[in-house]
Amino acid sequence: MRLFIKRIALIICFFIGLIALLIIGTSLLERKYTNFKLPKDVKHIVIGHSHSECAYNDSLIPNFKNLSQSGDSYLYSYIKTKEFIKQNPSIETVFVEFTNNQIVKDINQWIWSDKYLAYKYPLYASFTDFNDNLLLLKHNPLAYTNALALSLNTKSTRVFKKNSAYLNQLGGYLYLERNKTDSILNSQNSIKDNVLVEKIELSETNLSYLDALIKFCKENDKRVILIRSPLHKKYNEYHNEAIYKKLLTMRYANIEYIDFSKFPLNNSEFGDLQHLNHKGAKVFSEWFATTLEDGLLDKNNKQDYIKKIIKQLRNQQIIVHE
Amino acid sequence: MLFNSIDFAVFLPIIFILYWCLTHKNLKLQNLLIVVASYIFYGWWDWRFLSLILFSTIVDYLIGIGLSKQKNITKRKILLWTSIIINLGFLGFFKYFNFFLDNFITAFSFFGTQISANSLNIILPVGISFYTFQTLSYSIDIYKEKLAPTKDFIAFAAFVSFFPQLVAGPIERATNLLPQFYIKRHFDYTKAVDGIRQILWGLFKKVVIADNCAQYANIIFNNSSEYSGSTLVLGAVFFTFQIYGDFSGYSDIAIGVAKLFGFNLKQNFAFPYFSRDIAEFWRRWHISLSTWFRDYLYIPLGGSLGTTAIKIRNVFIIFIVSGFWHGANWTFIAWGALNAIYFLPIFLTNNNRNHLNTVAKDKFLPNIKEFLFMLITFSLTVFAWIFFRSRTIKHALAYISEIFSSSLFTMPQLLSRDSILTLLFICFLMIIEWIGREGQHALAQIYRIKNRAYRWSFYLLIALFIFIYQGKSQEFIYFQF
Fold first, then answer.
1. How many domains in chain A?
2. B187, B202, B222: which is the final residue of a domain?
3. A141 interfacial to chain B (CB closer than 8 Å)
4. How many structural domains compose chain B?
5. What's the pLDDT score for residue B124?
């Protein structure tokens, strides 16, 4: 019996050692060889989840690269930003999507739920640090173990194939064709009531990664601007607007912020209540490009400036809709 | 609790340590621990259905004792039928109630009578088809005086609920398993190591083969109208290995776990895809169920005795009932009937016992004739699985008609890096199983490799495959049966 347990323990140790070696080995190789290089003329990048992924058609915005991806929590945004900044000194500004659904506790599911771990972790595994791994292990050990296995599979394939350029898997503009806005509005019974600030639980984990992202950008002399992409006025998550505003004025008081959420668009230009479809993205991106060209980043009070323009747009209806 | 879950990975070592360190000196305690562990194992899924197992255990325990005391034939028959009605009654209600109800409604509406009845929302208790057959065999064996009833309730409860094989078999006979609960188990290093090997191979079959094949089989079967004939063939092949990996993998893990606790369960799969005819296939596939039906249904019906018409009837009954056992759907019945059709020609020409030994025994490779026979049998089996996997008979027929279209000779769709990798793993499985086909399981004869470093390297390789190439976790298919 003792011999049996001793040998089983020994073979388990061998196995764990082998796995650890493979994980560390493939991670080191990926860290060394992965290419995060962007075209040299890219000066501005946008990081975030599906809102910004669908809103910024970077082919219409000069010197701009959309690196957002559906389902990205700030953990992955942070990892991604670090690697892109390290390899692209030409980057001057990092726009970070900051919207209502990224602050509440539900977003934790995007960090450690089974689905998101299996989907996101293998993409970024080589670039996570010890604390990131500990966090995931602590909150969902089973899914983390599965994700670790999946990541080893994808990493070893990338290393084996010498595929060091997989940027297209890490984000980019998403051309959204759908238009479900009217049907959603018809089936929507009511918008959630505004909730008292005290009743909303924040995702301290997600926000701490946003803090880390901001800190890293500042340490590397990059300008960080929090943005909120265009949203439909019936967007459900507006109910936490009070705490959202509170966070902006307290926690992120020193960070530049531009709110595009009220940008005037027709229902046909939304894919749903929070995502622009390709029509909306075209209208918005062309306008955004012009505004950037007009010196948006040099304005002292950007938010007031944008508010003023949006108000003018709404009044004059000068946005060209189909 | 799933064998391939973290829960079980924690549960098993705890029970193993308790079993061999705390209860090893006392038989009663050993059996009691097995009962407690088995009830925890089952209750992990849904504790409410523990009452069903407990009830079934008490009924058959009392009937067993009653049968041993009763000499009057009529009263003995009444006792036996009580056991049969209760056990099959549970099974019939939980598994087949809605099927029969829906079919009665359809049948009556066919004759112009509309019946209004609502299907019940019935949860099928996991493993009910397995443990009811196990308890049933106990009562029948006592009735036939092949077995003396036990007076040790704990030993009997442990036999009924023995956790390694409780939810998906092998279906153990009381004559084999129950006596093992009468004797104190002693730790046997060789047996335990063999158990671990079998668990490892079972996990490989489930996690690497079945779960990966399932992803492609599900995509292809669920969207069959969108794929070419060649892709549909690929889908059927994926399902063929999914069901084998899933079910024989479960059996291997169950038998391996039982060995860790000092028990010997019967071999349930004996490398069926190397069979040279359908009769051999059925001697090698789900052996515990096939032999159960043989002993408790086929032989009482007259077996192979009697006129040709009776023989044909008996063959159809056993195959159709076997199909129906798998689930309340006409597709399973069609699958059973198709296997009966495969089996009848060789049975009626007395060729059903031509291949009793292992294929290419003591040789490295089969000869051309053996290879062709294996290929034909395998192809017939793949074809039959289409009925088993399809949602309805109509779906199966559409699937088959799509296969035999001009697109059969095109390159299959879905040939990606991952699907090709899965096919390579299937090749690896077949090679290892071919090498180990004379053993009780594929790795049983690995001890012949004298160098421990080679053996351990092989184990580590398998473990690595399990870790890295695990498919998306799927529930064991046979849980639903």
1. 1
2. B187
3. yes
4. 2
5. 64
